[in-house]
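Why should sequence recovery work at all? Because a backbone constrains its sequence more than one might expect. Tight turns favour small or flexible residues, buried strands favour hydrophobic ones, and helices have their own preferences. The token representation captures these environments compactly. In the example below, the structure is given first.
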């Protein structure tokens, strides 16, 4: 059996009402290069921008004409990296550097651009700095890897989450999966966690019922906005 699972984040997509403001912050303050900026595929009036963390890891921004500008702490945004916010929203995002020296170097870079930074703090398995990005983003940069689950899974918190010992073992050791080569059929019913299907079941059923071949052939958009020789 193959240990099949996602190995990283290809891109984290963040909503914005000001693409230039976000790109300026990320490229100038954090030093990540702009790699794509184009009309978002299939979404009328929306822009899509990508900045590169690594060749296989990006932060993306979506500027939709109907995006709301108001920040509602506790609803749309957490008021800090430990603040409350509505379930399913981004509480904060942390980006990785390899060493503590690199963490301090990033703090120097960010502070040199006039942005206040808290930290570093030592959380045991990671060391982190914290700062705020445009439009209320809660941002963190961390170094550290290979968390020892024997030390960092608290039995008290596990119990408060309603996780049994048997469930805990399954969470720590997900079942291996043998690839079927892309032949598994679409489930006939949406998963219970799919709230969008619950919101508009008829529309979602039509979309989910599209044949995979049709989605690939008719909905893919591969042409870049600028042709390079």
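From this structural description, the recovered sequence reads:
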């Amino acid at each position: 059996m193959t240990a099949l699972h996602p190995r990283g984040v290809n891109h984290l997509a963040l909503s914005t009402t000001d693409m230039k403001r976000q790109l300026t912050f990320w490229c100038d303050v954090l030093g990540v290069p702009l790699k794509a900026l184009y009309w978002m595929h299939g979404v009328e009036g929306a822009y899509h921008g990508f900045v590169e963390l690594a060749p296989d890891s990006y932060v993306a921004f979506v500027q939709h004409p109907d995006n709301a500008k108001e920040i509602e702490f506790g609803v749309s945004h957490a008021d800090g990296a430990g603040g409350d916010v509505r379930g399913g929203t981004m509480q904060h995002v942390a980006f990785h550097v390899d060493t503590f020296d690199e963490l301090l170097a990033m703090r120097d870079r960010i502070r040199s651009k006039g942005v206040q930074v808290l930290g570093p703090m030592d959380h045991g398995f990671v060391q982190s700095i914290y700062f705020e990005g445009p439009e209320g983003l809660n941002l963190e940069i961390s170094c550290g890897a290979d968390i020892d689950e024997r030390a960092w899974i608290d039995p008290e918190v596990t119990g408060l989450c309603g996780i049994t010992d048997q469930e805990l073992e399954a969470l720590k050791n997900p079942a291996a999966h043998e690839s079927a080569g892309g032949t598994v059929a679409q489930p006939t019913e949406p998963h219970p966690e799919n709230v969008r299907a619950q919101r508009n079941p008829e529309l979602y059923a039509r979309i989910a019922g599209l044949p995979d071949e049709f989605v690939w052939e008719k909905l893919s958009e591969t042409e870049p906005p600028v042709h390079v020789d």
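A few observations help interpret the result. Helices lie at 19-29, 100-112, 149-152, 155-160, 165-172, 195-199, 201-208, 212-219.
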